[in-house]
Design a protein that fits this description.
The protein contains six helices and five strands; from the N terminus they run αβαβαααβββα. The protein is α/β, with parallel strands linked by helices. The protein has one domain (5-162): Maf protein (Alpha-Beta Complex). Strands 2-1-3-4-5 form a five-stranded mixed β-sheet, with helices on both faces. α1 (5-18) runs parallel beside α6 (141-162). The longest helix is centred in the C-terminal third of the chain and has 22 residues, at 141-162. It is globular and about 45 Å long. Residues 7-159 form the CinA C-terminal domain. InterPro entries: CinA-like_C, CinA_C. This is CinA family protein.
Length: 163
C-alpha cells in the first residue's frame, strides 16, 4: 500500500457516495494519483481512467489543451491545469477530474516558476472548473511529487464535500 491509503480511501468513498467516477490528468506525478487510488481493492467501481500527459503533445492530443494556451502560459500554469481537468472530464465517464502540472525538480525552475510550483485543476460535472497552485519549497523531487498527490486527493475530497 502507498502512503496515501487513508486520503485515497476517503476520495473513493466520497465518489461512491455521490455515484460518480473519477479521472486523473497527471504531468509531474506521472500517474501517482491514479496509482494511489488503484492500490485499493474495489477502486475500479470509482476510478474510470488516468491520463499521464508528461509532454505538451500529450496534453494537446489526449486532453485537448490548446497550443495557444501552452504557448501563452506554459505547461505549468493555471490555464493549462484548468484545460487538463476539463479535458479529462470530457474524455471520460467521470463526474470529477483532477489535474496536476508542475516543476518537481531538481532542475527546470525559474524565478517566475520555481522548482516545487504545482498547479492543480479540478473539474466537477455541472460546475465551473477551478484551479489553485502550491509551491512545495524545500523538498526534493520525491517530496514535491508526494505532496502533490496528497494535495490533489485533499482537493478532490474537499470539493466533493462542499459542492
Amino acid at each position: 500500500m502507498s502512503g496515501f491509503e487513508t486520503p485515497a480511501r476517503k476520495v473513493l468513498k466520497a465518489c461512491e457516495a455521490r455515484g460518480i467516477m473519477l479521472a486523473t490528468a497527471e504531468s509531474c506525478t506521472g500517474g501517482m494519483i491514479a496509482a494511489a487510488l488503484t492500490d485499493i481493492a474495489g477502486s475500479s467501481s470509482v476510478v474510470d481512467r488516468g491520463f499521464v500527459t508528461y509532454s505538451n503533445e500529450a496534453k494537446m492530443e489526449m486532453l485537448g489543451v490548446s497550443a495557444e494556451t501552452l504557448a501563452a502560459h506554459g505547461a505549468v500554469s493555471r490555464e493549462t491545469a484548468l484545460e487538463m481537468a476539463s479535458g479529462a472530464l470530457a474524455r471520460s465517464r467521470a463526474g470529477v477530474a483532477v489535474a496536476v502540472t508542475g516543476i518537481a525538480g531538481p532542475d527546470g525552475g525559474s524565478a517566475e516558476k520555481p522548482v516545487g510550483l504545482v498547479w492543480f485543476g479540478l473539474a466537477l460535472e455541472g460546475h465551473e472548473p477551478v484551479a489553485q497552485s502550491h509551491i512545495f519549497s524545500g523538498k526534493d523531487r520525491a517530496g514535491v511529487r508526494a505532496s502533490t498527490v496528497e494535495t490533489a486527493l485533499d482537493m478532490v475530497l474537499s470539493t466533493l464535500k462542499t459542492a
